[in-house]
Write a structure and sequence with these properties.
Layout lengths: L39 H6 L2 H9 L9 H11 L6 E3 L5 H4 L7 E3 L2 E8 L5 E3 L4 H5 L13 E5 L13 H7 L3 E4 L21 E5 L4 H5 L6 E4 L2 H12 L2 H14 L1
Parallel strand pairs: 1-2, 6-7, 7-8
Antiparallel strand pairs: 3-4, 3-5
Helix pairs in contact: 3-9
Bound molecules: carba-nicotinamide-adenine-dinucleotide (CNA).
C-alpha cells in the first residue's frame, strides 16, 4: 500500500506535509479551499484548477524514484501480489509495473470519461487540450471530459474490490508514504491476517500502527528513500536495483 509520500522524492508534493504539501500551496490553483480541487460541484463550476493540476502531473514531467523501482523489482522477482496505490501521478506504471499488478484506488489520468454521455476516451485524445490550457470537451455531446480520477463522493474503481481476494493471501504487507487517513483505503492496512507481518515505512507513525499496533508490526520512521535503500541493502539487492534504475533511466 502506498501514498503520496513515495512520490515526494520525485518532486510531487503530498497533501498534508506542513509547508511543502499541496494543501499548503494552493494559491496557484485559485480555489476556495484545498479539497475543492477534487470536488465535483466545484469542478462543474470551474474545471480549470483541476486541469492545471493535471497539466502539472502530465506523464513525463516527473520520474519514478527508487521506491517505485523497489516495487518493480519485487514484481520482477515474482514477489509482488499487488500494489495498491492512492497516487494519481502514474509513476507506478512508468516504473514498468504492469497495470494488472496495480490497483490505482483513486483513479488514473490514463483514461477519461465524458461527464455527460459517459463515453470513454484514451489519454491521447485529450492531453493536447490540457497541455494548451483548454478544458477537454466530448466531440460527440460537448460535455466536459474528466480524467478518471476519483473525486470526493465518487465510487472507487471496480478493481479496488480485488482487495477481498488479495489481502487474505498476502504473506507480508508493506505500507509506504501514506498518512493512512483516507478511507476506505486506510482500512486495508487491517485486512491482512493477524499473524501477517506489516512493515510501515513513513516519516511519521500513522493510522492503525499508532492506535492498534500488532505484535508483528515493524515500523521504520524517516525518509522513504533512505529506508528503502536500507531494506534493499539488507536483502542484498542493491546492485540489482541500481542496474534496474540505470536501465530504466537510459530508456527514458
Ligand atoms: P498524505 O495524506 O499527503 O500523506 C503522505 C504521508 O507521507 C505523510 O504521512 C508524510 O509524512 C509522508 N511522507 C511524505 N514524504 C515522505 C518522505 N520523503 N519519506 C517518508 N514519508 C514521507 O497522502 P496519502 O497518499 O496518504 O493521502 C491520500 C491522498 C493523497 C490520495 O487521495 C492521493 O490521491 C493524494 N495525493 C496523491 C499525490 C500523488 O499522486 N503523488 C500527491 C498528493 C496527494
Amino acid at each position: 500500500m502506498v501514498g503520496a509520500g513515495i512520490s515526494t522524492p520525485s518532486g510531487i508534493p503530498d497533501f498534508r506535509s506542513p509547508g511543502s504539501g499541496l494543501y499548503s500551496n494552493l494559491l496557484q490553483y485559485n480555489i476556495p479551499y484545498p479539497e475543492a480541487i477534487f470536488e465535483l460541484e466545484f469542478f462543474f463550476h470551474n474545471p480549470k484548477p483541476f486541469f492545471t493540476l493535471a497539466k502539472q502531473l502530465y506523464p513525463g514531467n516527473y520520474r519514478p524514484n527508487i521506491t517505485h523501482y523497489f516495487f518493480r523489482l519485487l514484481h520482477d522477482k515474482g514477489l509482488l501480489l499487488r500494489l495498491y496505490t492512492q497516487n494519481i501521478d502514474g509513476l507506478e506504471r512508468v516504473s514498468g509495473i504492469p497495470v494488472s499488478k496495480l490497483v490505482e484506488a483513486h483513479g488514473t489520468f490514463a483514461s477519461a470519461t465524458c461527464t455527460v454521455c459517459r463515453r470513454s476516451f484514451p489519454e491521447k485524445d485529450w492531453w493536447a487540450d490540457v497541455m494548451m490550457d483548454r478544458v477537454p470537451c466530448c466531440p460527440v455531446c460537448a460535455g466536459i471530459v474528466k480524467p478518471d480520477i476519483v473525486f470526493f463522493g465518487e465510487p472507487l474503481p471496480e478493481r479496488f474490490l480485488l482487495h477481498v481476494l488479495d489481502f487474505p493471501m498476502a504473506d507480508l504487507l508493506l505500507i509506504l508514504g501514506t498518512s493512512l487517513e483516507v478511507e476506505p483505503f486506510a482500512s486495508l492496512s487491517e485486512a491482512v491476517g493477524a499473524s501477517v507481518p506489516r512493515l510501515l515505512i513513513n516519516r511519521d507513525l500513522v493510522g492503525t500502527f499508532a492506535w492498534r499496533p500488532r505484535s508483528r508490526d515493524v515500523v521504520q520512521l524517516g525518509d522513504v528513500v533512505h529506508s528503502v535503500e536500507r531494506l534493499v541493502e539488507l536483502l542484498g539487492w542493491t546492485k540489482e536495483l541500481q542496474d534496474l534504475v540505470q536501465r530504466e533511466t537510459r530508456k527514458a
